[in-house]
Amino acid sequence: MIPPKEDITIQFAHVAYTLAERFALRETGIGHFQTWTREDMAARIGEADVLMCSAFWNDGLLARADRLRFIQVSAAGYNWFGLDALAEKGVRLAHGSGINANAVSDHAMALILALTRKLHTGRDNQRKHFWRGMLSERGMREDELPGKTVLIYGVGAIGGRLARLARAFDTHVIGVKRDLANHEPALSEVHPPAALAELLPRADFVVLCCPLTLATANMIDAAAFAAMKPSAYLINVARGGCVDEGALVTALRAGAIAGAGIDVTADEPLAETSPLWDLENVILTPHTGGETPKYEDNAIDILLENLDRLWRGETTLRNEVV
Question: Considering 144, 268, 314, 320, which one is annotated as catalytic?
């Protein structure tokens, strides 16, 4: 059980997002504060009944978090939380799926469009003050989306909305997901994860919208790139660990695939020595796919919904994990 509303204290912990500032505008009367670094978060974790954070977490904090009863993750991913450790301590956990569904699906569609229309090479030419003439080589021209096949691995809130966007561009959309009984109507067809290898040769765009789990770690590896068409693109708005980065670089350099749109990398920030920075067939963004002015408010909406559920004594939380 968490304390009543008048006795509860929420700790917001994030390096950049102004969660406490936006929460104060709700005028809930709930006590709260924000910490901006891992060190400050650890120093004050003992004051919190409820914590909203993401990548700052480590399970060692539980030893000093005697009051903590609930963690609301301010992101969709939660792979850095030890679920057994939380359960043993009696701490509930819910993730933030849906916080950035619009933003990330928009971002994925933007990467698809940018690669199709070669906006990255247009920008490069702009910086060189180079006006490219018309091309006789048909394969070097910008392309169009109608008739292309978009394969989406992970059709949750983000993947489902991306499916609707992709269908609006007259593409054939293949969804890969575990639950085949219920799926987004915009999907042209749906298959289980085990079918990925046989689906890859059909795709013009392979889009990852899945969480990072044991099953998806390094899922797109050398064998996957070998199965893809040389004209195909990889779009990753999931987690960097879902892709074997060395195999990706090799495939991009060798022309095994046409290019990639990447918002996430295995290590972040990306090392200055990474080849991904300089590959001309790559569009790279620094894990900003989910960032919009609405991010904090979307996160707080989910937090308040789950707090209301806890105060009502409900046993199920939105996006419940533990």
Answer: 268
Kind and range of the H or E run holding 149 = strand 149-153
Name the nearest CA neighbour of 203 among 164, 168, 144, 153.
153
Q: Could you give the angle at the alpha carbon of 208 between the alpha carbons of 203 and 210, nearest 5°?
A: 135
CATH 3.40.50.720 region(s) of the chain? Answer: 5-99+293-311, 101-284
Q: Mark out the alpha helices in 45-100 (DSSP H runs).
A: 83-89
Q: What is the DSSP letter of 201?
A: G
**Are residues 248 and 270 in contact, defined by beta-carbon separation less than 8 angstroms?**
no
Q: Give residues with Cβ within 8 angstroms of 131, minimum separation 6.
A: 125
Give the span between the Cα atoms of 111 and 123, in whole angstroms: 14
Q: What is the SS3 assignment for 250? A: helix
The fold of the 5-99+293-311 domain, in CATH, is Rossmann fold (3.40.50)
Is 287 an active-site residue?
Answer: yes
222: buried, middle or exposed (CB in 10 Å: 19+, 13-18, 0-12)?
A: middle
- pTM across the whole model: 0.92
Q: Which CATH architecture has domain 101-284?
A: 3-Layer(aba) Sandwich (3.40)
Catalytic residue among 120, 172, 239, 296: 239
Residue 56: strand pairing partners:
none
Catalytic residue among 32, 117, 167, 287: 287
pLDDT value, residue 102: 97
Assign 144 to helix, strand or coil: coil
> pLDDT tens across 232-269, in order?
999 999 999 999 999 999 999 999 999 999 999 999 99
Residue 236 has φ and ψ, to the nearest 5°, of -120, 105
CB 73 within 8 A of CB 13: no
| 32 three-class SS | strand
